[in-house]
Amino acid sequence: xxxxxxxxxxxxxxxxxxxxxxxxEAYRLLQKKYPILDRHFELTEQxxxxxTPSSDTAVEKGIRICRDMIAISDRASAAWxxxxxxxxxxxxxxxxxxxxxxxxxxxxxxxxxxxxLEKRGELEEAITVAKQAQRQGWNGDWEKRIARCQARxxxxxxxx
Length: 160
Description:
Layout: H1 20-30, H2 35-50, H3 56-71, H4 73-93, H5 108-120, H6 123-136, H7 142-158
Helix pairs in contact: 1-4, 2-3, 3-5, 5-6, 6-7
């Protein structure tokens, strides 16, 4: 079909320009590799694809994956924060205003392990896991989980 009119090219809504030297520096900052983060996200994907509460075998595999994730969580958090600092530096080099402070995301391994332990009634260990995640700075509802587990422990211990 032939259009009866010619379309006008629209100018881009936002145009960003920068000097070649600054873009090279920003590119260098963004190209840093973090193998520990690759491993962290690989384990997250394995957990997502493996764990299901309806299968005892899948639950045990899920726990093993969660524990593997937790074993590298301190190095993963350090790498995540370093990556965020590099990203902010790259934005500054390009003349952009960086966003707020660097924060860690949710940690699927800590979260899922705490849920499994809580459902199994292993409340003390669930509290330990939640406190460790909270200490490392991973985002999550750790305070609520700890309070809920403590309340369940108090209720359990109050029964004669």
